[in-house]
Amino acid sequence: MQAFEWYSFLVYSNDAQETMIFHLEKLNKNERIDDLQYKGLKIIQDETGFCFGIDSVILSDFAKNIKNDATVVDLGTGTGIIGTLLCGKTYLKQVIGIEVQPEVVHMARKSIRLNNLEDRFQIINCDINDIFPKKILEKNKYDVVVTNPPYKEAGTGIINESSKKLISRHEITATLADFIKVAAGLLKHKGEFYIVHKPERIVDIITIMRENKIEPKELRIVYPRKEKDASLILVKGVKGGNKFTTIDRSLIIYEEDGSYTNDIKEIYND
User: Fold this and answer.
1) What's the confidence (pLDDT) of residue 10?
2) Each residue of 238-252: b (16+ CB within 10 Å) or e?
3) Is 157 exposed, middle or buried (0-12, 13-18, 19+ CB in 10 A)?
4) What is the pTM of this model?
5) How, if at all, do strands 42-46 and 31-35 pair?
6) Which of 43, 55, 171, 181 has a 20 to 30 Å separation from 201 between CA atoms?
7) Phi and psi for 182 in degrees, rounded to 5?
8) Which pLDDT score, from 0 to 100, does residue 90 have?
9) How large is the average pLDDT for residues 11-36?
10) Nearest to 109 by CA among 127, 124, 87, 126
11) Where are the domains of the chain?
């Protein structure tokens, strides 16, 4: 991790000679550039806002087997971490990130330019519940929807004073049901849905998915350490899929000495 007031990066013009151009942008106060340690990808984050966690990294790996040339929507994209990693891990055609917070959108767009992903990754500033009423995206069009939504229901848990952290952690602007309902509307028939959430919401997740014609197909439970309670659940669903669900081998994050397990190291090195 390294912070700069100004940063520059290479972009390539569209002429036949692939002319190299240095682009200069300014980091806002409290912003930093984090090296994702994966294929040279980087993310700009606000130290006072909500920074991505390992859940987003694990989700991007869980969804890495999407088909080539897939069109992807990331609901609640935040810093753009999931879309950025999917661009590195897959041969997707396009990923569209939806984010309600304007200042986070501005920061995510800088990350896209920093990684030279403008041709594959775009961010739209809107509430997910406005996608269809305002005709922002078409229904039944996309191959994949991914989401790492807020985990806490409105009115529960510790309320953080930062509005950016509040919206990222609590269901303030949209509920779990909203995220899944919108995902179902975006997906084409047999399209794939990927979500990471807290294990205590698994009954809600599966119930709401089935209410919206997304059949749970694959589950993976994530544990911080052996002998500890589960901390995350990964779920893959297919719109219009048949009823058959598999449960993958559990994923453990840390060894007893605090180092990453081989499974997590493989995710970072894949």
Assistant:
1) 46
2) bbebeeeeeeeeebb
3) exposed
4) 0.87
5) antiparallel
6) 43
7) -65, -40
8) 96
9) 65
10) 124
11) 50-269
Q: Please tell me the class of the 50-269 domain.
A: alpha beta
Q: In angstroms, rounded to a whole number, what is the distance separating the alpha carbons of residues 31 and 49?
A: 9
How many residues are listed for the chain in this entry? 270
Instruction: Name beta bridge partners: 216.
Output: 237
Report whether 32 contacts 44 (CB < 8 A): yes
Residue whose C-alpha is closest to residue 240's, from 149, 137, 148, 140: 140
Give the residue among 128, 25, 43 at the shortest CA–CA distance from 83.
43
Cα dihedral 257, 247, 205, 102 sign: positive
Average pLDDT, stretch 32-37?
A: 90
Query: pLDDT tens digits for 195-231?
Result: 999 999 999 999 999 999 999 999 999 999 999 999 9
Q: How far apart are CA 157 and CA 155, in angstroms?
A: 7
Q: What is the C-alpha to C-alpha distance for residues 91 and 46, in angstroms, rounded to an integer? A: 29
Confidence of residue 146 (pLDDT cuts 50, 70, 90): very high
DSSP string, 92-139: -SEEEEEES-HHHHHHHHHHHHHTT-TTTEEEEES-GGGTTTTT-S-T
Tell me if 40 sits within 8 A of 34, measured CB to CB: no
What is the token pair recorded at 198?
């807290």
Residue with the bigger pLDDT between 63 and 269: it is 63
Round the average pLDDT of the chain to a whole number and report it. Answer: 87
Residues 6+ apart with CB under 8 A from 124: 96, 97, 98, 99, 105, 136, 137
Tally the C-alpha atoms within 13 A of residue 154's C-alpha that lie toward its C-beta. 8
Q: SS3 of 210, please?
A: helix
Location of structure tokens 């950016």: 164
